[in-house]
Amino acid sequence: LATGNWAEQKKAATATAGVSQVLNRYTFASTLSHLRRTNTPIGRDGKIAKPRQLHNTHWGLVCPCETPEGQACGLVKNLALMCSISVGSVSEPIVEFMIQRNMEVLEEYEPLRSPNATKVFVNGVWVGIHRDPAHLHKTVLRLRRAGTIDPEVSIVRDIRDREFKIFTDAGRICRPLFIIDNDPSSSNKGNLVLNKDHIKRLEDDSTLYVTAMDKEQRRAIGYYGFEEGLIQDGVVEYLDAEEEETSMIVMTPDDLNLSRQVRAGQLPV
What are the transmembrane regions (predicted)? Predict the structure, then answer.
């Protein structure tokens, strides 16, 4: 830990440098910046420019501005302000739940009998097949938004390839997004789940001092918050890079109004 070089003494040439670092304490901002720094393990002296350049997939996940000058430019990046890394959770309960919801396990699957069935993957492992993936996707998504399943769990339905993927592992980069109410029976259909009551409760939080409190104590004094409030109430959800690819994301409130008008048939597509 003292040197930061991790390897056996005999294999000094292959040692990984900078695994442990002394936390930067120059200013409060520099400490926060250091805690959210990421490193691309590529030789600094290479002349290839591609790994250093910004890429479309960095949107919302990596800060486009904060990177050092010189050799490490573009290789050392910083996470975006709202971005987080998944901690990981147990996958077995989700597999059990899907088996109860008519998922056929791989051992019992007969390809000739159901060639159009959707494959179900959990953390990259093919665990079974399902004949009604739309219903399964809707059910698992509803459980995540209700807080029954860990908010970090990623739920991806690839319609074209007929695949349904769930990821519960650690190390995935996620970002929070507001949820739009798409329930056909809801009076709020096509609008954000977020409303004035949620904002009022968040404003009331600013009068409470909760720094040294745990979850139970915060709940006891009526603290709402981001994790315990917005995410548990299904107002905000975390999407990782893979789930984002299969999601429709609205950039501005104007786009949301436009989408609503197109769906209602008031505007041409």
Answer: none
CATH class assigned to 92-167: alpha beta
Chain-centre distance of CA 83, in angstroms?
8
Query: For residues 29 and 81, what is the distance between their CA atoms, to the nearest angstrom?
Result: 12
State the amino acid at position 19 in one-letter form: V
Helix (H/G/I), strand (E/B), else coil: 19: coil
How big is the chain, counted in residues?
A: 269
Residues 258, 265 contacting (CB under 8 angstroms): no
Outline which parts of the chain fall under CATH 3.90.1070.20: 92-167
Give yes or no for a contact between 80 and 62, defined as CB atoms under 8 angstroms apart.
Answer: yes
Of 10 and 135, more confident: 135
> What is the C-alpha to C-alpha distance for residues 24 and 36, in angstroms, rounded to an integer?
12
Q: Residue 118 — φ and ψ, nearest 5°?
A: -90, 130
Q: How large a percentage of the chain has pLDDT more than 70?
A: 96
- pLDDT tens for 125-174 read 999 999 999 999 999 999 999 888 999 999 999 999 999 999 999 999 99
Burial class of residue 166 in the structure, from the number of CB atoms within 10 Å of its CB (0-12 exposed, 13-18 middle, 19+ buried): buried
Name every residue whose Cβ is closer than 8 Å to that of residue 242 and which is 6 or more positions away in sequence.
154, 156, 165, 167, 172
Residue 83 pLDDT > 70, yes or no?
yes
Other CB atoms within a 10 A radius of the CB of residue 189 amount to 13
Q: Which residue has the higher pLDDT, 218 or 244?
A: 244
For residue 239, the Cα-to-chain-centroid distance in whole angstroms is 3
Question: Can you give the pTM of this predicted structure?
Answer: 0.83
Q: What does the block give as tokens for 254? A: 């104007």
